Amino acid sequence: MQVLKFGGSSVAHSDSIKRICSLLEKKPKGKYAIVVSALGNITDQLIQCGQLASERNNVYKNIIEKIKIRHFHIIRELFPIYYQSNLISWIKKNINDLESLCNGIFQVKELSKRTLDKIMSFGELFSSFLIAKKLKKSGLNAIFKDSRDLIITDSKFGCAKVDFIKSNHHILQFFRKEKSEYVVLPGFIGSNFQNQTTTLGRGGSDYTAAILASAISASLLEIWTDVSGMMTANPKMVHQAFPIKEISYEEAMELSHFGAKVIYPPTIKPAMKKNIPIKIKNTFYPIDPGTLIHISNKKTKNRQPVTGISGIQNLALLTLKIRLIICISMYSKRLFKVLSREKINVIFITQNSSENFITTGIHEMDIIKAKKVINSEFSQEIYQKYIDPLKIEYDLCIIALVGYNMKNIHGPSGKMFSSLGKNRIKVRAISQGPTEKNISAVIQKKDFKKALNTLHETFFEKNPKQINLFICRVGKVENKLLEKIDQKKNYFLEKLKLKMRIIGLSNNIQRIYFDNKNGIHLSPCKSNFMNKKGLKMKIYSLMEKKWKFNLRNSLFLDNTAIEKITGSSDYNHYQKLKTISSYLLKYPFLFKTNVGVYIPVISTINDLINIGDKIKKIDVIFLNSEKIKNISMSNHYDYFQN
């Protein structure tokens, strides 16, 4: 028996439901449990209804009406007229129940978690009921079954904990007796011992499917969504991301924990316990192979060290500084106990070597609650100055490198931090688990997309490295540079594996032209410059744009006369620039274009010095002098060190 789950995007409208029916018709003969989510965005609308009703805002009635009309529209598109009346009556009855719930909330001005769970359950109930009827109408032996009769939970409304012993008993009993080949069930919902509706957390439809698969020891669990598997990175941010063909349970759990939204994190454990393979498939491109999640392959020699890159935005760091050097473990225990009690999810943990700093990463939405409960828990110690007041850092994110094979290969962490450093991405904190399947780094939120692309390029892309150019001053002479870049782009691509992309240009009439998405095409750009189009440029406009775009592998080319003056100005000023470049920015200060118009004079002198030769005298001709001046090497030796 197989279990299939279809997400909200897969059941968004009537065409999507027809596509599901077509997929199931092509499946080999057998028994299937089909778990479905609510129609796309319906759950959000149901939550909004409850919240508006609690605020005594009558707009909730309009939203309920929209929900009803949408489902009526689905019915009219999927079923013939003679078949519609019973379905519409069933939807109306449940819509009336929904409206009664919201009316009660409106009267008492309070929305409890228990009532919200009941409200949210309507989305999955509507979609699963209609899909079951459509499958039956299409000639398949299908029935609808309410998951609340099978999945038993505790009473922690909003994110209930499953009683697997009782749930497994109910599920096995039902499927042993049921003869229908296709059983359609609503995801996301269960019931407690008092038969009250509970929910399993947002994304819980995946979890429902895994619970069923584990109980019946299914041969396969398929998760049908709108992407072709788990990706090497978020494809919305990294255009070069591609599907991962195979991945271990542990790696999938790590990626989902750190923000990969393809699969709900708790889904993997029930399947892993029974060693049930999970297949991620694309409803809209069913021929794509997708991603297979299964037991770790012991033959790891040929595997890439890194499987995927993921991350979480909107992170905050909480740091507790303990001034006492004794009983530190007791304070750690109290810190995590109070966070657990308040259901504040700890995403990241690090502790310094002296163990008097404990830093945890949490989501920004939990900051106010976390600050309140931690300061309350340690109020006496803070008053006695045994502990410093809680320090909070905002506007951060976490980026994680995940790979089962990283522990067997040297270098992934070095490559990770080297590539981040080269692109001037500051790492605030680092964590690596004992299994070495995950290396995490906390960075500034503004660098999130840049870091994802940087790391993806470092570990996955065999394609050419993309270089983003910002060129200051494009005049008659400098146009030759643009022409050369344009002429040699294929050479750069094939021989040097570099893809040159011009992002910003400024001309000699104080105009700036840029395109940070596709790059600048030179022909229309020249036309725009001649017609004086583009933004007016101030002295640092192009540099400001460069920092704002925050693109990886960015180069700023200065074609102005200032660049030449810099290398031939006052000697003290020159030394100051070299110090800033070498020691503060860690970049070499080069000036070959200013010496002999790139004739290899500097490199030749360096080579001679490096092999032990000594230069006794150098004759220099200054253009602004009529005489040849002899410069002693002892006085100006620094000129030739670089």
Shape: globular
What's the CATH topology name of the largest domain?
Answer: VC0802-like
Mean pLDDT: 84
Strand count, sense and closure of the main sheet? 8 strands, mixed
Number of strands: 23
Alpha-beta classification: alpha/beta
Terminal-residue CA separation? 71 Å
Number of helices: 21
What CATH architecture of the largest domain would you give? 2-Layer Sandwich
> What is the CA-atom radius of gyration, in angstroms?
32 Å
Helix coverage percent: 40-55%
User: Strands of the biggest beta sheet: in what spatial order?
Assistant: 3-4-2-1-7-9-10-8
Total of domains: 4
Please write the CATH class name of the largest domain. Answer: Alpha Beta
Low-pLDDT residue spans:
625-642
CATH homologous superfamily heading of the largest domain: VC0802-like
Binned strand content:
15-25%
